[in-house]
Structures are given as C-alpha cells and as structure tokens.
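queue> holo job accepted (zinc ion)
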Amino acid sequence: MSDSFSTTVDTKPSAYVAAQLPPTAPLPAPRRKINFLLALLVHWLIPGRFGPHLAAGSTARACLATIVSLSFVVGAVIVHEIQEERRFARPHVASPYSRSSSRERLAEEILRGAAQSTGANWSWMPFIGVASTPLLIELGLLIFATALMPWAAGGDRAWSVWKRSVRNVHWSLTILVPVAAVVAVLACINVNWDHWQRWPDAVIISIGIVVFLTPVILLLRMWFVGAHRYVGPPDGPAFAPREPLCDACGYAIVHLPLETRCPECGLPVRESLPGGRRRPTPWVERRWRPSGLFWLLRLQWQILRRPAFFERLPVHSGIESARHFWWMTVAFMILVSLAVIRLSVSGLGSHSHREFEAAGITTALAMGSVLATLLLQMLSMFPLCLWAQKRYGIVDYRVSASACCMATPLVWPLLIVLLVCTLAPVLNEQWLRGVVVLSLLDRPVSAWLIVAIASTALVLLAAIFWLRRVTAALRAVRYANV
Ligand SMILES: [Zn+2]
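queue> job finished
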C-alpha cells in the first residue's frame, strides 16, 4: 500500500515534496474472535494479547463478561456465608450470641421494607435504589471509559476509540473472576488465626500488601494495555495518506522543492518531513536499558525548561514510548514525594504526642494532594484531547495523547508547591498553633491566614503554568507530519 508513497523524501537535491505522505501507522492486524470462556478466564493475565481483539469485538460479549464476572463475586459471597454458617453450626464453636448471616439480614430488611411500603409513601425509595444500582454502575463504567480514551488511541476514529475503550473497561472487570475464586477458596479453608498471630507483624503486613496490591496492579495493566492498539479494517486518520503540511504554520507544502523554505513562515521544507526536525529522543531507544533512567531524568528537565521540545517530538509513531514515559514519570513523582514527606516529617525535633499527631495528618494531607494531582493529570488527558480536536483539528488521538503524556513533567511545579505548602507549616510549630500574629493595616492578622492565602495563590499559579504549557504543546503538534 505504501509503495507508491515511498519516494516522498528523495535524497536528490532536485527532489520535490510528493502530493501525499504515506499513512502514519502500518496496516492494523486483522481482528480475531476469541473464545468467550478463554477470555473470561485468562484475559487478566495477558491483556496485551487478548485485549485489542476483545476491545474491537462485540459490545454484547463485553457486557456479558461484566455480568458473569459480577456473578462470580456474588457466588464467592454466598460460599463465604455458607462456610460461616457451618462454622457457627458446629457444637464446639457454638456461641450463645448466634449471629445472623448477611443473607438473613438482607431478607429481613426486604421483608421489613415491604411491610413499610404499604404504610408510608416514600419507603419504596430503597427499592428504586437497588433497581438503579446496575444503571449507576454502567454509567460509572461509561464515564471511566471516556476518561481512559487517550490510552485506547490506536489511529482509528474518535468514535471507534471510545467504543473500544468502553469494551476494554467492561472486559477489565474479569479480574473479579480470579479474585472471587481466591476469596471462595479461602472461605472454604479453615484458617487458624491463632497460629498466624505468632508470625512477625512485618511478614503479615507484607503478605497483606501483596495480596491486596496484586489485583489492583493487574487491573491497572488491563486498563492501560487492554486497548492500546487497534485491530480490524484500516479505517481511521492514521491509515490514510495525508497531504504534507508545513510543521510550523500548516501551509500545504505539496510539490515544493525540498531545498526551499515555506513561503508562509520560512521554515525549511525538509524540516517538516520524515527525517526533519521531529526525531525520537535518546530515551526512546534506551528506555528498556539501565541508561534509560538517566535519560528519563534528563527529559524531565528538558521538557520543563524548553517549550520548543514539542516542536521536535514525533507524535505519530511515538505513542507507545510516550505512554511508557507517562507511567515512569508518575512512578518517579510518587517516589520523590514519598521521600520528601518522610524526610520532612522525621525532621521534627521533639516527639510529643501532639507533634506525632500533626505529623500523621500532614503526611496524609501531602500524599493525598500529590495523588489527587496525578489522578487529575490522568483524567485531564481526555478533555485535552477533545479540546485539541475542536480547537486545533487533531483528529488522530494518538497525536494529542502523545503530547499530553510527554507533557507530564509540567506537573512538577504544582507538585513541589503542594508539598511545600502542606509540609512547611508543620515544620514551624508556632505557625501550626496560630501563635504568630502579624499586623496588617493596624489589624492583627494570623500568620496562618497569610500562609494559607499565599499557598492558594502559588497552587493556582502552578496550575495555570501547567495548563498553558500543555495547551502550547498541543498547539505545537497540530500540523505534525511525523
Ligand atoms: Zn510554514
């Protein structure tokens, strides 16, 4: 297909720009139909292999997978309840305080509700609540799938990206199948907790963290990897030939000599074409090697310092490395924040109960604000992609998603300001108690109030910096041919 376009950039000095550039993505793989039962049981293990085909498949099957997965959870709860009942039914553990199972409690509630519903007018509200729960779950899944669209961008149209993201989010709930199986098995095994109490706390906590964290990590992997590439017929902006545009101003440079400049803005024509100014960063090649870490750190600084970075970023081919850069940067940000919080809190001099409490609150506040910022950054990608589509006409979501992912280091100022604002007051005990009072226009003003106002202003400034630079990054990639 691309044979007719392969001579676009000729090395001969007399060469001209062709009428059309080749498609930016290779032909997508054909869609395979995956056995439903197989997908239900092993999709959580290999989302990269099954995910794209499941996401491009039928919506009904994706919804059915969600229903089956949820029923597995209900099954595990029933197994757990039956085992609890059996345990209490045994004579040697029978207690005078017989406890009713949650099924019995639920039945009692329903009967009580039914009895009340004949009396009062508004008592049918709980039943509406129960009936609307599936609708609310579905609505939540749809909203979440929309937010995850930048991770499903594969060169197809926006509508197709959205549908694939929706199916992927539904299929990702199959993680509940192994979780429910483990819960059911644990319920059947009579765990002797007395024996466990003799184990060291650190071991128990470590096991607990692994047990709870593993499904979360697997679920995150399913969300971000499940629909990362498009399979099916080559229908979308990435699979069609394009008219070559000037990288800086968007002027159609069709049939211009390669060794000339854009008549509109003066940018050399060669710079706008493959092999021109948009080239992969050294990090792309080295990202799986130890030296990649060095380049990851260097890129953080380069992106923060140089707005022109995005004029040299290849956005059509670099989506995979941009996603990799995003999650490595997020992990790095969390690690740095944890280290800063730990050091600041341990820097407190005395260890009175009051200060210990303040340190706990500060740690929670600082970490909460860092995680909330990173979550907002993740969720902001879809609105930014949509805005780039409306404002700059970027129809291929891979382009805007690449720019947004590579723009992640622009969150650093906001993170630093949040950490300083949440950690600084606790380092100064007098500020914390509101003892310091300054006079402003002959009126006493608590230093605490001034710190709060200054913090808010700094946070706003850092947020505005981030938004301005991200939108500038999207503006810089709107005419990219590479
Ligand atoms: Zn130009």
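queue> The two ends are 18 Å apart (CA to CA).
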